[in-house]
What we know:
This protein has two domains: 5-220, Alpha-Beta Complex (Lambda Exonuclease, Chain A); 245-329, no CATH class. Helices cover 42% and strands 14% of the residues. The chain contains ten helices and eleven strands. Strands 2, 5, 6, 7, 8 and 9 form a six-stranded mixed β-sheet that branches. A three-stranded antiparallel β-sheet has the order 1-3-4, with helices on one face. It has a two-stranded antiparallel ribbon with strand order 10-11. The longest helix is centred in the last third of the chain and has 39 residues, at 248-286.
Amino acid sequence: MAAPIALCDCAGMDNDQWLKCRQHGPKGDIEYTVGGSDVATILGISPWTTPLELWMIKKGRTIPKPKANRGQQEMGHFLEPIAAHFYAQRTGNTIIDDTHLYQHADFPYALANFDRRIIRKTDGAKGLLECKSCTYRKADDWADGKYPLYYEVQLRYYMAVDDADFGAFSALWGNNPENDLATPELVRDKVKEDMIFERLEEWIWSLRNDKPPTMADVKPALAMESLARIYGASQKDLPTVEFPGKYEKQLRRIAALQAENTGLNAKIRENEKEITAHSVRIAELMKAHEHGILTTATDKLLVDFATKTTRRVNSDYLKKNHPSIYQDALNISESRKVKVSVQPA
């Protein structure tokens, strides 16, 4: 395969200019593009974005919503050179900065920025380094040479664009590089690359032919979050949607489950009343004590009756006495949830 095409140097670009280059190339002449962070989404394995949401963004029919973890993303950007430094220190490989935007030699839509280039110490092979940072909760994802699949496809995409010999990660999650750093290496696999680019070709075709992807294979919770971002708040003046008969089974199942939950909630309220009734005599005996115990022949019944202090803003007081502060302090959130009711014909 031929070497990639260097389209432009992104050093010194502001974020808006860089995004424009990523969307349509520096000359604005590429109708649709794919970047490394798009690959997992297109393949349906991203834990953050659905194929439909990305498709709508690429078509210009929705705009990306501000990400809630902006601070975490900024921290990741600052930690990138640190992860690269300790990768070089651990492996002895040479690390080279590269701020260019590249284009695949055979697939003009395939663009990529690389975190770092690598020259391997042992044999001089040329590769790419992808720097990641995460929390301790995600450290197990990198244990024993593992790496998340959604990051693997991103790096394999980069290797394909650059025609690189190999790829590696430097994943950092703490301040001790001896224990809090993973540096797994990927062997280039042309079969996997072909599978990735076959899906990307289908994706580009879907954009050009206005064929949006469905939510069929997306995790339900992520699908609902994504649909809320795409379509936003409901609009009262829109007409009622007429569903075809094929949706009857799903709608009836939703209605049945919601009715069951209503019954369960009623039972919970009933149980809480009985618990309160039984608790009166126990509380009388406990007085100001926090803990009690009843020892039987088979076990011990441990009783806790400790005071828990909760501090909440008195919204009624604030609204009455300081209405302007109350309005400024309101935290408005929107949500939409499907509810199905059954009415006789």
